[in-house]
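Before relying on records like the one below, remember that each one covers exactly one chain. Contacts with other chains, cofactors or solvent are not represented anywhere in the record.
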Amino acid sequence: MTFKEYQDKRTGLMNECQALIDEGKLEEYQARAKEVTDLDAKWDATKEALDNLQALSEEQRAYNVQNLTGAEVNNGEVVAAINLAPQGLNDGQKMTSASDLYVAAFAKSLKGDRLSAEESECFQMVNAYTHTTDNSGIVIPDSVASGIWDMVEDMYPLWADGQKTYVKGTYTVPISNSSTDAAWYEESTAIADGTESFRQLTLTGCELARAITVSWKLREMAIDDFIPFIQRKLAEKMGAALGYGIACGKGQPGQYDSFKPEPKGVITTLEAEADTPQIVTYDGDDGISYSDLTQQRAKVKIGKNALAYYANSETIWTQLANVKGQDGHPIMIPDPANGGITRIFGIQVKEDASIPDGYVLLGSPSVAYISNVNKEMSITTEEHAKARTADYCAYAIVDGGVLSTEAFALLKSDASGVTGATGGTGN
């Protein structure tokens, strides 16, 4: 059996399987699906025999099973152009989550549209090689997932500015607590031993899930419109939880806590320190003053070149925008040369809805906060025939924590008490 014969027969069987499912003939579908499995096993045996024959004859292999379409190869990668329009498998495509064929198959699957034979084969291949027993969601195409993350970072700059790692499983970060300074010596003097003290930040994984409900009528929109719509909705849902996590997440629950595991937020960490050395309080009746901001700035010891202010819209425009210096002029100044962004003491002010009302966070998350994305986003669908709606549930595993509190300083009202944030991970 040649590969062309195998491919043609498998495509025919897959079309028959789809037709049987559409007709509700599930028993006949299971029998036909068994034929697909047997055919694959037969081809695997045939391919192994061909490989052995070629090895014995010391001839170069005539085909590449990683590039079944014969597409152009550049530095070991099959060249594929990204195009949202659905189309058959051609010489410029490959069956991966980055291909335009998979983007079309993904969108049609979410919309409930029928997939072509090529789209169905690509959809099944990508998800079959990605899923595990702990993961049954549909793989989000690379270009779509990238767009969702970009939107999340635009809405929640504190999350965007933090460090990101992508390590599967538990991730442990060593952190230096203290270290003796270097000293000057004479040539004949022996160098004294230094002392180092370390602690560890262990990131396990917190499950993050958000669902959106779309009517059947709404998802009849064209694929080119449907993909951006899904991106925006998932970015809003996932972004709210990620922003909450890095700002006010509670961390791992204790023995008597009832909340679910969350990343440990910066504000939570600062408020939990003994004597709260990195927190400045201001008079809630009088509002934020110039001296409050200078005291806050003085507390940041690390990452001065990457500092930013983070506050929500209410706090920025009712508090920070009204603070005046000794000359009577507002100290929050717009910077027309850089798109009109605003600055205080030359430090950019970033609007972030995850920060509670009345709180102003100053810090360098790129230096002192790390998030580990244990599992990239996937999506699961659920149909509701009576209500004529469909649920799209996005799922990811993320954890995070502060590396050094000295890179942050929090300014809050003396009437704030404990963190007033709302939200959660959606578990």
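DSSP finds eleven helices and 16 strands in the chain.
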